[in-house]
Amino acid sequence: MIYNNENIKHVCVYLRLSRDEEGKGIDEVLKNHRETLIDLVKKNKWSYEVFEEVASSSTIEKREEMVKLIKRIEQYHFDAVVVMDIDRLSRNEFDQSDIKRLLFNTGTFIVTPYRLYDLRSDDDSLLLGITGLIASQEYKMILKRMQRGKMFAQKQGHWTNGKPPLAYDKDVKTKKLVPNKHAEDVRFIFNEVVGGTTIPAIVEQLKTMGVKTKEGKPFHYNAIVRLINNECYKGTLISNRGIGKNEGIKPKEEWIVINNCHEAIVDENVWEKANKIVNEYSFKAPRSKNRIYPTSNLIYCGQCGKLQGCNNHKRLGKIYIKVCKCGNRTFYYNPILKLIKEKVQTHKETILEAIQGIEEGSEEDNTEYKIKHLTKQIEKVQKALENINILFEEGEIDLLTYKERKAKRQTELKEIEKEIQEVHQNDVSVKKVGLQEQLKIIERLYDKWEILEGDGLTDEEINRMLHLLIEKIYWTYEKGSTEPTIKITYK
Predict the structure, then answer these.
(1) Gap between the terminal Cα atoms of the chain
(2) Same domain as 121, residue 34
(3) In total, how many domains does the chain have?
């Protein structure tokens, strides 16, 4: 189309796609749009510059080319913006207002293959507003349908989150994750963490063995942490977690958790233990800033329950347990450490007796029966949550009713999941495996725990192993007492 407007000399051609809307492939669609618009500006004998990107229309800030274009428009570089359709500028109603205001203030026209819009014309401004409103509503409906489709696919166990994580490929037919040859690398990392190896030590081991990340780079501390925190490795998919790309995380009660979606690489118990170790205890702080003692983050005041640390008196060359504000007194550290060592050694006999009791006992194991029925209950609650979402989206219930019903079902879901976890923990076979693991840790610990007598395990290594065995050590040394007392709570 030829536009007879003497005020237009130099224009910008803006091309944007967020998805394959025509089913021809994004590159092909962009090529067609580009040819159409450039042909248009050439027929009108305008000089032009091209701004092109593949990006969502959610916010302007996420669209680099649009940000550049806006800055150029603010400096009066262009007489008009040439686009395929008005909604190419934005379908976000808030961004539409900002763009419209900018074009009005700078006197910049909007040109499409079908019409020229002058924002300073009341008729054009009204038409543009109506067109933008329709585009905004259309975008919201498209987004709802896409989210609903994605959520449905995820509930079927399909992988919809882009590139699969390390050690997994996406099966083209089933659309589910399947382990690949790197699964043994992931299992090695989890087993080392559970076995008491520190993350820096694991990083060094992987470097020596030439094991690298999915991107072919050497592992580093944060890469290990992210891997341990990834639920995929225990066969679980989590959706509805993020607000938007890099925009934050929703509350956990709003997440959709789908268990047993695909083949797990590590056992759920191993995943939980490794996850707890990595998230509750960190070796990242340098020793110069935060010295690690054998009992760091383990000793608690027996009177008020507060965590108690140590003081290193460099001039005297002695270490003390800190005085608690509640009045719990201080004491030399090494005698207490020796006492803890003796008590943990005694605990070995308790573990052996418990294992023997399980092997000789006739306790009936109803784990499978309980899990089966609890899983059915979870499926019912998840179906109810899905129906609540549909009712709200279709306008059948108001926001207040939606929130109340959803909160009730989410609470119910949490209670069932907690019950399942307790059933797993009380499983006879799981108990036995857990006790055997504790036994191995104690044997490994006492094989080289010579920290008081000579060279052996470092304070850091002892601390990591004690954290695998002990929940808390309660310390009491009241005024008038001749010696302190300790009480150990084991895991």
Answers:
(1) 77
(2) yes
(3) 4
Q: What is the 3-state secondary structure (H, E, C) of the chain?
A: CCCCCCCCCEEEEEEEECCCCCCCCHHHHHHHHHHHHHHHHHHCCCEEEEEEEECCCCCHHHCHHHHHHHHHHHCCCCCEEECCCHHHCCCCHHHHHHHHHHHHHHCCEEECCCCEECCCCHHHHHHHHHHHHHHHHHHHHHHHHHHHHHHHHHHCCCCCCCCCCCCEEECCCCCCEEECCCHHHHHHHHHHHHCCCCHHHHHHHHHHHCCECCCCCECCHHHHHHHHHCHHHHCCEEECCECCCCCCECCHHHCEEECCCCCCCCCHHHHHHHHHHHHHCCCCCCCCCCCCCCCCCCEEECCCCCECCEEEECCCCEEEECCCCCCCCCEEHHHHHHHHHHHHHHHHHHHHHHHHHHHHCCCCCCHHHHHHHHHHHHHHHHHHHHHHHHHHHCCCCCHHHHHHHHHHHHHHHHHHHHHHHHHHHCCHHHHHHHHHHHHHHHHHHHHHCCCCCCCCCCHHHHHHHHHHHEEEEEEECCCCCCCCEEEEEEC
Distance CA 486, CA 475 (A): 5
Tell me the CA distances in angstroms from 29 to 38, 52, 53, 184, one per residue in order.
Answer: 14, 12, 12, 42
- Cα gap 196→277, rounded to integer Å: 9
| Mean pLDDT across 382-386 | 89
Which residues 6+ apart lie within 8 Å of 240 measured at CB?
A: 151, 250, 254, 255, 256
Same domain, 235 and 124: no
Q: What is the pLDDT of residues 140-184, one digit of tens each?
A: 565 566 566 666 666 677 887 778 999 999 988 888 899 999 999
Written as six digits, the tokens of 154 are: 């995820």
The side-by-side arrangement of strands in the sheet containing 116-117 is: 47-54, 10-17, 80-82, 109-111, 116-117
Whether residue 470 sits in one domain with residue 329: yes
The answer as to whether 253 is a domain residue is yes
In terms of pTM, does the model score above 0.70? no
Tell me the one-letter amino acid at 412.
Answer: E
Query: Who contacts 179 (Cβ-Cβ below 8 Å, separation ≥6)?
Result: 167, 168, 263, 265
Same domain, 90 and 217: no
- For the chain, how long is the longest CA-to-CA vector? 102
**Rounded mean pLDDT of 209-235?**
90
Give the range of the structural domain holding residue 40, as residue numbers without chain letter: 10-143
